[in-house]
Design a protein that fits this description.
This protein is of the alpha+beta class. The protein contains six helices and nine strands; from the N terminus they run H-H-H-E-E-E-E-H-E-E-E-H-E-E-H. The strands form three sheets. Strands 6-5-4-3-7 form a five-stranded antiparallel sheet, with no helix packed on it. A two-stranded antiparallel sheet has the order 1-2. Strand 3 and strand 4 form a beta hairpin. The protein is elongated, with a radius of gyration of 34 Å. One of its GO terms (molecular function) is DNA binding. InterPro entries: Clp_protease_adapter_ClpF, Hemimethylated_DNA-bd_dom, Hemimethylated_DNA-bd_sf.
Length: about 240
């Protein structure tokens, strides 16, 4: 049954409370008992008629049900729009990947760490054109989310099908630019997510801490400007 709102409840109370008040008045101003009884009967009939029209009528309940369903659809519509925004970000290649560490070899699956800046190859010497370092906190220029750099490649290293989806013909040149692996800040509402994005799409920010379930695996602390790498990560990026 649809919910009775405050306005409907107030209307019912006013109708019911009007009966004793009107009856009391009729006792003082009626000329005799017969007239008072007639007046009271008319008041009761009129009040009951008004009550049934506003609260017991099928049309009245149908109108309330339509209003309730309309509000429900609006709420669901808002959720759908939020979902579309998130899906749009995913479709535009923001690399919220699941299982990208695995590559099929024959009939079995084997771990590969050559993609998405996960290679354990020591990055030394560090090319001068690599602007950013592991441990720095970044903000995405277009989407506004924040995160911390946990790895980089001198150019995009990913499966060919991923590269084709990420970089259509008009963006082919971006494949040969530095790419960074990012742990997305949980405070942005995306949960445990990782991104792999080109250098031109990020900018550095100071004084912002990142919250992510894997932070302690990569870093031992935060000095206010960047995160301090764990020893194993420092060996891979000795110049960062």
């Amino acid at each position: 049954m649809p919910h009775i709102n405050a306005a409907a409840a107030l209307q019912i109370c006013m109708l019911l409370s009007a009966l004793p008040a009107q009856y009391f008045i009729s006792q003082w101003y009626g000329t005799d008992s017969a007239q008072r009884i007639q007046i009271t009967e008319r008041l009761i009939i009129a009040s009951w008629s008004s009550f049934t029209k506003s609260c017991l009528s099928q049309d009245a309940w149908a109108d309330r049900l339509k209003l309730w369903l309309s509000k429900t659809r609006q709420g669901e519509g808002s959720k759908t729009e939020r979902g579309k925004v998130v899906n749009t970000i995913k479709e535009e290649g923001e690399n919220w990947y699941s299982g990208e560490k695995k590559a099929k070899i024959g009939d079995s699956e084997a771990e590969t760490h050559s993609y998405f800046a996960e290679s354990t190859h020591v990055r030394s010497p560090k090319p001068e054109y690599i602007q950013f370092s592991v441990g720095q906190v970044i903000v995405h220029k277009r989407f506004g989310y924040s995160g911390v750099i946990v790895g980089w490649d001198v150019k995009a290293k990913a499966p060919e099908e991923w590269l084709q989806h990420k970089y259509p013909p008009v963006k082919q040149d971006l494949k040969d630019t530095p790419h960074y692996r990012i742990l997305i800040n949980k405070a942005n509402g995306f949960g445990k997510s990782t991104a792999y994005i080109p250098e031109e799409e990020i900018t550095i920010i100071m004084g912002l801490e990142v919250h992510h379930p894997d932070m302690k695996a990569y870093f031992s602390g935060y000095d206010g400007s960047k995160y301090i790498m764990q020893p194993w990560l420092k060996k891979i990026y000795p110049h960062d």
